[in-house]
Design goal:
Strand order of the largest sheet: 3-4-5-8-9-10-11
CATH topology: TIM Barrel
Structural class: alpha/beta
CATH class: Alpha Beta
Shape: globular
CATH superfamily: NADP-dependent oxidoreductase domain
Number of domains: 1
Strand content: 15-25%
CATH architecture: Alpha-Beta Barrel
Distance between the termini: 29 Å
Order of helices and strands: EEEHEHEEEHEHEHEHEHHHH
Length: about 290
């Protein structure tokens, strides 16, 4: 990593949710500050707290979590590390999944559960209102419209400011928008994983923030193309992956996660990195190589 590159999330510029909530365009995903299997407390609690604080010191003002991370652990650590929150810091969370063990996830996006989940997140995060609340995933056993109506009601009650979706198709987004304004979509996406390209394009056309999870490409940063481009920029492969996401669309807000203060510094330094058009296109070839192995 270059020692001269600016290390600040503000170097990525800003992005606005729903025309009313502006943050720096490089955030922090708080899933990995929990234990193995996204279950229980972290092995190093002090490091997890230090990671959160270091991210905010480096101008990260958008932190994404969920009640199912731990469960509850991620939200509680965020509050312990940062509450009372510095001005401008936005905590986004999600609901609609249940946990029964490490690596195990169950759906529950029923209206009753979502109401309880919002109340629980408010308490754990020590907030009076959640700035961005996202449906974690549509529940095929529950009417999608019913789930969205529950969130719309919670918004009217002042418990949620803005509403987003996660793990959805364009059809889900369009159905949701008939019920309540949708300001963000969070799907799996990276230079090596282009399945949701059409959703990214839809979000850009409609000024909806797209939040890619797994922006590092599930190990594709080990590819020789990525390594070569990283070497040319005196950067790390992780930074190249983040830089690619930032350049893919002005509506993309990457949220790379880690439980290490050193890694959070590395990730945020990518905000000041700019790929050439040729490098950007070359990284798309990794998708074909990676997915056919």
């Amino acid at each position: 990593m270059s020692n001269t590159r600016q290390v600040s999330a503000s170097a990525a510029g800003s992005i606005t949710f729903g025309g009313e909530l502006t943050v720096n365009r490089l955030g922090f995903g708080a899933m990995r500050i929990t234990g193995e299997g996204i279950w229980g407390p972290p092995k190093d609690r002090a490091a997890a707290l230090a990671t959160l604080r270091r991210a905010v010191e480096l101008d990260v003002n958008f932190i994404d979590t969920a009640d199912s991370y731990g469960p509850d652990v991620s939200e509680e650590l965020i509050a312990e590390a940062l509450a009372p929150y510095p001005p401008g810091v936005v905590i986004a969370t999600k609901g609609g999944w249940l946990r029964v063990g490490p690596g195990q996830w169950l759906h529950d996006a029923s209206q009753g559960h979502l109401r309880q989940a919002v109340e629980g997140s408010l308490k754990k995060l020590r907030l009076d209102r959640i700035d961005l609340y996202q449906l974690h995933m549509p529940d095929h056993a529950i009417s999608f419209e019913a789930s969205m109506e529950a969130l719309a009601e919670l918004r009217l009650q002042g418990k949620i400011r803005l509403i987003g979706l996660s793990n959805v198709t364009q059809e889900h987004i369009e159905r949701a928008r008939k019920i309540v304004p949708i300001v963000s979509v969070q799907n799996r996406y990276s230079f090596a994983d282009q399945e949701w390209n059409y959703v990214v394009d839809y979000c850009e056309r409609n000024r909806i923030v797209f939040i890619p999870w797994a922006p590092l490409g599930f190990g594709a940063t080990n590819d020789s193309v990525v390594s070569r481009i990283a070497k040319a920029h005196q950067a790390t492969p992780r930074q190249i992956a983040i830089a690619w996401a930032l350049q893919r669309s002005p509506m993309i807000l990457p949220i790379p996660g880690t439980s290490s203060p050193a890694h959070v510094e590395e990730n945020i330094a990518a905000a000041g990195l700019r790929l050439s058009d040729q490098e950007f296109k070359e990284l798309l070839t990794v998708k074909r190589q990676f997915t056919t192995r």
